[in-house]
Amino acid sequence: MKKVFVVGGLALAAMGYLASPDSKMVSAQTPGREILPLQLEEQIPVPSVAGRLDHFSADAKRRRLFVSALGNNTVEVIDVFAGRVIHSIKGLAQPQGPLYVPAVDKLYVANAEDGKVRVYDGETYTLRKTLDFGKDPDNMRYDESSKTIFVGFGGDDGGIAMIDPKTDERTGQVYKTEGHPESFQVEASGGHIFVNVPDADNVVESIDKKTGAVTKWALKKLRANYAMALNEKDHRLFTITRKTPMMVVLDTQTGKEVARLRAAGECDDVFFDASRNRIYVIGGEGIISVFEQKDPNHYELVANVPSSVGIRTGYFFAKRDRFYVGVPAKGNEPAQVWTYEAED
What distance in Å separates the CA atoms of residue 273 and residue 179, rounded to the nearest whole number? Predict the structure, then answer.
């Protein structure tokens, strides 16, 4: 990859991190200017929001971003074209995973504190329905092929349940995970769900959607696997661990480990950029690790892009080539959403 140095003032201001000796990271002392794979281009204030920011979703048609302000009990609606908050959905209970489903024009929000998934109109954000999941509903995914919403929930008896978005009723079986399911991915053309379950001895589970049968894949000498992304075309699964901070690449057909590379620490979100064959790992230590898939069996670190300490979650808006991350409020600075442009 050709590298030319360009680091804007915003990026330099964000460099509150420690670099490992082998990191491909730009610092204020680095001579020259480099075009990083992610260029910080905008900081969007999210005023009056305190506490932790959790996961994101997006309405591509309206160019809106949904940010779960877990510590504020709100979901903030951002017009990414205007670069400002246009609405705040209040009255939530530790919102974790928002999910916008364009096929039905609804926004689903999982709430950890009261165990509810709340359903909102996608245009007016009026509450339409509330579904009870008992304990800690978290990540959600929409499967276009089956027209089904999958919801991870529960503790030691956790599992993945389903919602029919046409009726907003629970449907089908509950896939048991023997622990709280963290990030998971649903194959669009295949028959499996892949789930990070750190509570079940830090394993990745492959669940057969037809039978519910579970196959467990161990992550040797690694713990705290929370974030996950999928490259379904190449049968590659990317799971990120915190102890030790690592990106582990698994073959989804066999469960075999293909590669492991040191990654940003304290990660809570990871995304696969199919157009560039890149993986973006958001780390709370103040960097975004960008990896490139050279081929399905070989990967390399492109750069550790500066962000800010405490940033763990975000959203890759593939249709706009934009990568958004949530910045918690600090001191007199309000919470923010930073916009990065993905570069070739």
Answer: 29
In whole angstroms, what is the distance from residue 57 CA to residue 36 CA? 25
160 class by beta-carbon count within 10 Å (0-12 exposed, 13-18 middle, 19+ buried): buried
Residue ranges making up the domain that contains 195: 52-218
Exposure of 224 in the CB half-sphere (CA atoms within 13 A): 10
**How many structural domains does the chain have?**
2
DSSP H or E stretch at residue 11: helix 9-13
The answer to whether the beta carbons of residues 240 and 224 sit under 8 Å apart is no
Mark whether 188 and 281 lie in a shared domain: no
Q: Is the pLDDT of residue 200 over 70?
A: yes
CATH number of the domain within which 310 lies: 2.130.10.10
Q: Are 40 and 135 in a shared domain?
A: no
Give me the sign of the Cα torsion angle 19, 20, 26, 32: positive
pTM above 0.85, yes or no: yes
Q: What is the pLDDT of residue 10?
A: 42
Chosen domain end from 198, 218, 238: 218
Contacts (Cβ under 8 Å, ≥6 apart) of 214 = 175, 176, 177, 178, 205, 206, 207, 208
The verdict on 250 and 159 lying in the same domain is no
Q: Are 269 and 341 in a shared domain? A: yes
Q: Exposed, middle or buried: residue 132 (CB in 10 Å: 0-12, 13-18, 19+)?
A: exposed
Cβ-count burial of 125 within 10 angstroms (0-12 exposed, 13-18 middle, 19+ buried)? Answer: middle
Note whether 341 and 207 are same-domain residues.
no
Residue 170 sits in the same domain as residue 238: no
What is the phi/psi pair of residue 143, to 5°?
A: -100, 110
**pLDDT tier, 33 (very low <50, low <70, confident <90, very high otherwise):** low
| pLDDT bracket for residue 34 (50, 70, 90) | confident
Residue 248 DSSP symbol: E
Question: Cβ neighbours of residue 8 under 8 Å, at least 6 residues apart?
Answer: 39, 40, 41
One domain, residues 170 and 271 = no
